[in-house]
Specification:
Elements lengths: L1 H24 L12 E3 L6 E5 L4 E7 L5 E2 L5 E6 L6 E3 L1 E4 L2 E7 L6 E8 L7 E7 L21
Antiparallel strand pairs: 1-2, 2-3, 3-4, 3-8, 5-6, 5-9, 7-8, 9-10
Bound molecules: zinc ion (ZN).
Length: 152
């Protein structure tokens, strides 16, 4: 008689523990790219979006250990700047990365649209975010590449 009473209680405790564990697992840890830029994870291999000191955009493809990979025929287009006067960037291979031929205009908090095709005929994978170049006070990355759960 006792076991039939204890069993439902044990199941209830177990299932609440499982639910709790599941909640923790859904919290995905963010990582930065090899240069401290934003990792674009919707594309395989992953790509790092990084703004250089001279305001060019550098796209570095990386393996799962974040080791840089040479570009393999990917076609990248980045559009940023004021919505009224967007800059469309094209890329050339420089030191095994793709470097934009145009620079990010003066200013901050521009919308960014990154389009990456794994080959010229492939469907473009699109990532959109805000290019906030200010440094996050908590993780020291630029806000566009922030890896902490810092909120504004
Ligand atoms: Zn941060």
């Amino acid at each position: 008689m006792k076991t039939t009473r204890i069993l439902p209680l044990a199941i209830a405790i177990l299932s609440s523990l499982t639910l709790h564990a599941g909640k923790n697992h859904s919290h995905e840890k963010k990582v930065a790219g090899p240069n401290g830029g934003r990792l674009l994870v919707s594309i395989e291999p992953h790509a790092e979006f990084f703004v250089t000191a001279d305001r060019k955009v550098q796209i570095t493809f990386v393996d799962d250990a974040l080791k840089p990979l040479a570009p393999a025929g990917q076609v990248v287009t980045v559009t940023t700047g004021e919505r009224s006067a967007p800059v469309k960037m094209s890329f050339a291979i420089t030191n095994n990365t793709l470097l934009s031929e145009q620079t990010v205009p003066e200013g901050n908090n521009f919308p960014v649209v990154v389009q990456i095709k794994t080959s010229p005929d492939a469907k473009a994978i699109v990532e959109k975010f805000t290019l906030n170049l200010s440094n996050c006070p908590d993780c020291k990355h630029a806000e566009y590449a922030c890896i902490c759960s810092h909120t504004h």
